[in-house]
Write a structure and sequence with these properties.
- The protein has a domain of about 60 residues: 434 Repressor (Amino-terminal Domain), CATH 1.10.260.
- By secondary structure, the protein is mainly α.
- The protein has seven helices and no strands.
Length: about 130
């Protein structure tokens, strides 16, 4: 024990750092977790991935130019289901399957969403004339 104390007194051993312990004063240093960032991609005909999260569904819906009520009507679900799915990390598999099926039909030309987007009411204040 005397040998350990003398080595610590001369600075040969630093006990907290040798044991990996936190420093005595202050907060422990924050450890940053490594995060892999991918560039944002646009969902079009070139995108061949799966819609897995609610953020994917939201990005695809906005890129397609659909509002949440319109997507809910196309999927034949309640609007609250679409809202809940877009904010979820793991939406229901039925809703994901429905969105994937709708996306493939839009890309193949079976469904024309221009008819839906042209007849929608204007949002916001009316324009001055």
């Amino acid at each position: 024990m005397e040998l350990l104390q003398s080595r610590m007194a001369h600075g040969e051993i630093d006990l907290p750092s040798a044991l990996g312990a936190a420093p005595r004063r202050g907060r422990p240093p924050k450890e940053e977790t490594p995060v892999v960032r991918e560039p944002t991609s646009y969902y079009g005909s070139h995108w061949h991935g799966e819609l897995r999260t609610g953020a994917d569904i939201r990005r695809w819906r906005k890129q397609a130019g659909l509002y949440q009520p319109e997507l809910a009507k196309l999927l034949n679900v309640a609007i609250t289901s679409v809202v809940r799915a877009e904010y979820s990390e793991s939406p229901s598999t039925r809703l994901i399957y429905g969105v994937e099926l709708l996306r493939s039909k839009i890309l193949s030309g079976e469904i024309d969403i221009r008819k839906i987007t042209q007849n929608r009411p204007r949002r916001g204040r009316p324009k001055k004339r």
